[in-house]
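User: Reviewer 2 asked us to show a designed sequence for the structure in our supplementary figure. I'm pasting the structure tokens here. Could you produce the per-position amino acids so we can include them in the response letter?
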């Protein structure tokens, strides 16, 4: 299949492709998505095929505006409604009872559906032109990192989709926070840049004082864990080693150099270059320093893929320690993704 490359001037056309049952890759504020008409069984089936994804792993449905929520979900409880009003457009996915308009193919056989309104110009314009709810997982082949740059999506899906809408690198770089509201609880099924304290604060402001916010691991009972968090995630060619202090990094680098002096290695961190132990930088190393945790999150997937392509045998990843209230969400999400990349969870 030949894949059309489209730009912001081609949204009419992109919308037509979606309505005709085709697949279009598009940017959001989190990661690029692989979109198809959420109401169309064949489109959803094609999404699974293009990704090489197990068909019991449900897709997130994207809407142009909150007003359309009732077309894909039913019996929306007041807390979910309030969270949607507060955080949309934005990187928050709500798990809600599925509307019968949506085929089970879209929700991986479940009676619930994940929904969000993305906070990105191009995504919203595209959704308005398509004029239907768009089911979209991240636009990577199963087992690869979510694309945060257009070229990453292209590398994975060129020739497997009808069109790709080209945009800049995504602003946040990690997938949305997924939450599920039940009884008196808001459960976080996948950490994202909207963190538990932020949700807690907003609930209190909305008068929902008696709601508890809970971070959920895959093993927590009575919660419909996000099936996707069970699957193997990005496992780069490079070995990933996580460090939590510069002393630890230094020790790991020394060990590597003694055992395998020829192996090139990469380091991704937010430590200032001047503070790095001598010996970390060298002819066989590539050290990428980010100014902020937000920048680290934004570039993590892209830089992992780049270093992998450049055949670095080992990648040392800094796992942030602690957080201010502002950075809680991004830190929890970063730690989760770093540990998954290292094979330490999931
Ligand atoms: O930021 C994002 O959420 C991106 C952009 C494109 O919106 N999308 C994304 O989709 O990350 P995907 O398919 O790669 O991850 C969706 C996650 C999976 O772990 C899936 O199991 C979970 O959401 N999920 C979707 N619907 C669900 C449901 N009804 N119940 C539980 N988990 C659900
Ligand atoms: Mg994904």
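Assistant: Here is a per-position design you can include in the supplement:
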């Amino acid at each position: 299949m030949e894949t059309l490359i489209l730009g912001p001037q081609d949204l009419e056309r992109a919308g037509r492709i979606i309505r005709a049952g085709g697949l279009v890759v598009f940017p959001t504020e989190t990661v690029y998505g692989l979109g198809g008409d959420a109401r169309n069984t064949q489109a959803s089936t094609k999404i699974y095929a293009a990704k090489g994804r197990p068909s019991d792993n449900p897709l997130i449905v994207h809407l142009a505006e909150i007003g359309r929520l009732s077309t894909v979900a039913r019996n929306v409880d007041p807390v979910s409604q309030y969270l949607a009003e507060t955080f949309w457009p934005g990187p928050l996915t709500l798990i809600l009872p599925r509307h019968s308009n949506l085929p089970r193919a879209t929700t991986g056989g479940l009676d619930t559906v994940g929904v969000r309104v993305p906070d990105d110009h191009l995504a919203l314009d595209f959704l308005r032109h398509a004029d239907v709810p768009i089911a979209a997982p991240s636009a990577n082949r199963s087992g690869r990192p979510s694309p945060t740059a257009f070229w990453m999506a292209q590398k994975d899906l060129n020739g497997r989709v009808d069109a790709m809408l080209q945009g800049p690198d995504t602003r946040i770089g990690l997938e949305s926070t997924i939450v599920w509201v039940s009884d008196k609880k808001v459960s976080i099924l996948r950490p994202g840049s909207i963190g538990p304290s932020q949700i807690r604060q907003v609930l209190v402001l909305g008068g929902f004082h008696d709601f508890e916010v809970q971070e959920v691991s895959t093993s927590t009972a009575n919660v419909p864990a996000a099936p996707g968090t069970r699957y193997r995630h990005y496992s780069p060619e490079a070995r990933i080693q996580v460090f939590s202090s510069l002393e630890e990094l230094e020790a790991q680098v020394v060990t590597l150099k003694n055992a395998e002096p020829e192996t090139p290695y990469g380091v991704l961190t937010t430590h200032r270059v001047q503070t790095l132990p001598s010996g970390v930088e060298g002819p066989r190393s590539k050290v990428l320093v980010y100014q902020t945790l937000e920048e680290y999150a934004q570039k993590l997937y892209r830089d992992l893929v780049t270093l992998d392509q450049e055949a670095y045998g080992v990648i040392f990843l800094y796992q942030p320690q602690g957080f201010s209230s502002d950075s809680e969400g991004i830190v929890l999400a970063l730690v989760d993704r770093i540990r998954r990349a290292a094979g330490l969870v999931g």
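For the response letter, you might also mention the following. The domain at 239-341 is CATH 3.40.50 (Rossmann fold). The longest strand covers residues 92-97.
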